Amino acid sequence: MSDTTPQGSDAMPGTALPAGTGPLAGLRVLELGHFVAAPFATRLLGDLGAEIIKIEPPGGDPVRQWGARHQGHAPWWSVHARNKRCITLDLKKPEAVAIVLGLVRQCDALVENFRPGQLDKLGLGREALLKARPGLVIARISGYGQDGPYRDKPAFGVIGEAIGGLRHLTDHPPGTSDLPPVRVGVSLGDSVAGIYAALGVVSALWRRDKAGGDGPAPDQAPTQRPGTEIDVALTESVFSLLEGALPEYGTLGSIRQPAGGGIATAAPTNAYRARDGIRVLIAANSDPLFRRLAMAMGQPDLLEDPRFSGNQARVAHVRELDALIGGWTAGFDGAALEELVTQAGIPCTRVFNIADCAADPQFLARGMVRAVQDPLHGEVLHPGVVPRVDGAGFPPRSTGPAVGADNEAVLRDLLGLDAGAIETLRAGGVI
């Protein structure tokens, strides 16, 4: 399949992965991942062309059972494990550890999200991995990182979001609700950590293999070049997103508070209710945009009101300003309101649900909503690949396969095991 495959039912069935697609084609990455963070990192690498070999326990990654079900399977898995070859191994068995080390010898990088120290106990610590492949890049994703006083505490993405300061900021504004702090709605902490891990892998491989600079000589074989360990913490990944909150606290002692649907540093920006109940997000948070909004509202006197003169004043009086805008938007149906504000040259949109996203002409035009064929589901919608490279949006090369779908192919092609040896492993519960 070429990079120019047209939009439509363009995914290959099963795990037939055509070579040479995407800028990372030629890289092979081993995933010892489960749940969200590490598998998300490898999905990104696979989307851009890397060959991903995912190792699961014999029962499969728990995400296979998460979310809605269709024909006995979770559709999320179709995307979560796309562009991956999936094999099963019971890592508690020494034969499985030997297989992992054999695969490591064939890989450029390994991505894992076990609790710190667990792989060492299994015989898959840094020393063993780098002995098998001296130039290996090892990306480790954990709740709190590989050291520090919280190193051994369990964590999921939601914990990272809470301790990283995000859950506080996504809450309702102070004094407006007694409900618990609002979750973003997706596993944001896990996904951000996965993005950082993918970036770390690519950066380390560039340093390892680049010509010149302070890296090893380009004529050195990858296995002779030093390995690199990437340490990504869920908590730190979220914490890094907090914009000016930390320097503001450090210089002013101020603690940024939740702003609900608004932006704490600029106004007006919020999702305002139209007459038919549709929420339209209007972002008029600069002086020229606020001028346009005031004129569109037919209330030019707002421009002379000292409460709204300049961004800092508007932020200080955002509740009064939002009430005025909300009173105006309530006089229009959502579609008419969106059209009016758009014609005024102000960034706006109704708040999309997933059905809106799937039908959106911009997403469709850029291949961000793709109909692919999945042997477990039939036709499934997949999100496109981000980023586009040289204008190309790479179609999925495969969908998430069944448990152990690639056991025989990987063990045969990469490790040279014959059918008898593979059957022995199966009989012994290794695969």
TrEMBL record:
Query: Highest taxon of the source?
Result: Bacteria
Record bears the keyword Transferase: yes
* Record key words, sorted: Transferase
Q: Spell out the Pfam families in the cross-references.
A: CoA_transf_3 (PF02515)
Tell me a Gene Ontology molecular-function term this record carries: transferase activity
Q: Name the InterPro entries for this protein.
A: CoA-transferase_III_domain, CoA-Trfase_fam_III, CoA-Trfase_III_dom3_sf, CoA-Trfase_III_dom_1_sf
PANTHER family from the UniProt entry? SUCCINATE--HYDROXYMETHYLGLUTARATE COA-TRANSFERASE (PTHR48207:SF3)
- Record-given protein name: CaiB/BaiF CoA transferase family protein
